[in-house]
Structures are given as C-alpha cells and as structure tokens.
Amino acid sequence: MTEKIKNFINGKWIDSADGKTLKSINPADTSDTIGIIPRSGQSDIDAAISAASNLYNKWRLIPAPKRGEIILRAAEMLNKRKQELGTLVTREMGKVLAEGLGDVQEAIDMAYYMGSEGRRLSGETVPSELPNKDCKSIRVPIGVFAMITPWNFPTAIPAWKIFPALVSGNTVVFKPSSYTPVCATKLVEILVEAGIPDGVLNLVHGTGEEIGEYLATHPKVDGVSFTGSTAIGEKLAKMCSTLDKEISCEMGGKNAIIVMDDAMLDLAVEGAIWGGFGTTGQRCTAASRVVVHEAVYNKFLNMFTKAVSKLRLGNGLLKITDVGPVINKSQMQKILNYIEIGKKEGAKLVIGGTTYKKGVCANGYFIEPTIFANVKQKMRIAQEEIFGPVVSVIKAHGLEDAIRIVNDVKYGLSSAIYTQDVNNSAVAERDLDTGLVYINASTIGAEIQLPFGGTKKSGLGHREAGGRGGAIDMFTKWKVIYRDFSGRLQKAQIDKE
User: Fold this and answer.
1) Topology (CATH) of 255-439
2) Which one of 24, 130, 400, 490 is most buried, by most CB atoms within 10 A?
C-alpha cells in the first residue's frame, strides 16, 4: 500500500506549494513504494516557521506539567501502536523487525521520560548574602527550533529531539530524512492526536540539499538540532555560529571494541556481531573496528568469521533474517567503494565483500557482512566512517596499544572493552576518548536516561537524551532571578560604612 503523505503546517495537512513530490522506497524490495511525499521548497519552510513563531508565546505560557501531559498521552499511543509502527520502520528503513520495534520502544521511553520532565525542569534556589532577599535560577524555553533528522532511526531520533523541545516550551519545525518520511509522519500524527496545539509542531518534507540549510539558517529559527554526517554538521555549526543560533550536532563515529587476552571470547564475538552488523552497520555507534590483543587475535578472528558466515540476509520482516538491506543504491555503492579501497590498501578480505541478490534479496540493496583482517590503523577503512556492514579487525600488543589505536581517529562517539580484569576496565574507561564507554558489552545500546553524544568530530554542542547535561539543557536557557523584599536599597558585595 502506497500512502499519500503531506506536510503539516499550522495544524493543516497540505501539499508542497509547488506540488512536487518524492517517493519513499522499501530498501529490501524496490518494487514496494511506501509513500509519495512533498518535495518542499523554501516557501513551505517559510510557512512552517511563521506558524511556529506565531504560536511560541502562547505555547511557552502553558504550564510545563500540562505540556508534559501531552507527551505522556503520546507515549501511551506509541505503546499501543508499537507493532504497527515497528513494522513500518522495518519496511521503510530496512532494519530487522526486532530492531524496528526497538526503534519505536526508544521513542516510547523518551516520551515517558520527557513527559515527566514537565513536572521537574528544575533550577535551583540558593541563599542570598543579604537579608530579606532570595535568589533562584529557572529554565525558560529558547524559541523556534529546527529539527533535522536522519533515516537510520526514523522514529527514535525525532522523538529524542521533539519531546524535550516541546516539554521545554519551544515550538518546532521538523524536517525528517526524505528516505523515511512515512515513519516521521506517523509520529507527528500521534502527537497531533495527543493534543499538540496547531502551529506548535510543524512537519516539512523534502531533501536536505534543497531545504535543510535554508531551514537551519532562517532568521526566525532560534535553535537547531541536527543528526547526520560530520561534514554537514560542521558546515551548519559554522553558519549558525555567525548567526548567534543555538545548535547541537550529533554526527559520525568510527567506534571500536577492544578484545583483551583474558576476554570471554564467545561474548566478545557476540558483541562484535551486534555492534558491526546490527542495523546493517548503519548506526553512528556501530562497531566498525575490533582491536584484538595479539595473543588471541587468530582465535578471535576464526570464531568471528565462523559466526558471521551464519548470518542470514533478507527482508527484515521475515523471522529468519539476521541482517537487512542498506538504505539505498547510493549508500550501497559507497560501501562497495570502501571495500575496494580496503583491498587496494592491502587489508585481507576474510568474508563478504560483495552484493547479495539471491532469493528474497533479488530486488533490494543487500551487501554481504564483510570482515577485513590485517588492517593497519592508518588505512582509510580504519579511519573513515563507512556506515555499512564492514568490520576491520586490528591487532594490538596490549592494553595501552589498544587504547591508542581506538583513540587514533577523528571521531569519539562510542567504544567498548571485553576483559575480566577490573584494572584493565578501569584504565580503559578513564583513557578512552569517547562519549560512551561500554565494559563487556558492545558499542551500541545507549539508554535514554543518560546523555548521549561524543567527543571530537562526533558531536558539537549539548548532548541528547536525558540526565544532567542532556537534551533539556539544549532546549532551555537559564534565567537568574533576585528578589529583594527589604524595602530599601541593598548593595551586594559592597561593604557597609
């Protein structure tokens, strides 16, 4: 079934101003068109921003607990429709159904968490140095936010941004990826049904090339939350800095798992498979490198290769499928190009390395799970984000060498270590230069009650998700209030004569 998708601007579902459209295609079966969507232009962005700007003052004055109640109602609706929405994620993005359902579960978790923030949004009250005077800090919203989201988590990542922005009192213009627009639309439909007032949340479909930059730099946009490539994120950050706009960018990763000589190898292999080939390697936290102690390198590589050889490619809606397709033809070609680069650099192709077109995979964008061995740290396949089912296995001489290898990239999002030595794990969690560190677990699996984000070229600005330093900090600004009820002029820091 092909859906006719529309923009949502000022409470109305409408086509783009010029009537142009795009198609959303199932990457597992390119004969399946999921939706026809607007290919919006600048006038559509203008209309959405105007609506968000007009409603801002009304929305920010609604008590935060009432704003939170709308998000909590959305949580209940998401929960009731989890199977339907998870199936749609799999159909539109390609990840296996268990992960599609997990994508929706992240949105549910975030809705419950951020909806409850409506009754917190805490500041602090402190004593004054003067009598009959009190002091406090409060959080206030920033204004109109542009949300630009990717295709790999088409329900979860929009939820990570939209829910905290709304509960904080901001209004939103949301531009999702043009590869997963139907998932984005269903999320907005749920929020509308939950009671978001007209104009507070606006949805504009289209390509990033045509409207993304225009949206982010629009003079009536007060802040930007972006998830995508490092190149685009850095470009937007530079542009926004000259315009005095708040911006947060969650960008790329070249994440690594360290496997020490005392590691439980069966567990490490499972972690490397989940990290490297979960979501077909299309996660910013994917474990595209495995750094293995030389004492167990050959044994680990043999175990890892044997396990990967058993992974089954296919449509994610089939229960037997372990690995789904990559998102589209251009991404498939990019990954294949990197595989050729790895060969030319002298890495050993152990398994995979080509497209897969058999049986149910005949009409999709499938690439065999791929392992390279004998990888040197300065090879491009060990330095650059591939964003596909390609894992480089690198030999290390010991813990210090392994940490050096992990840190020797421009990214710093996620890392992991498998070891039974508590001292090794303590050194690793101290010295790994990444925003996320996992001990005896893979590089993926962040939970929403703590901040999410990375160092170096993996992230700019505030972190996402929950906890101190998380998304609420992104979507609020501090106001400090001093109230003097003494009835006379008091001068702080001035000695009395």
Assistant:
1) Aldehyde Dehydrogenase; Chain A, domain 2 (3.40.309)
2) 24
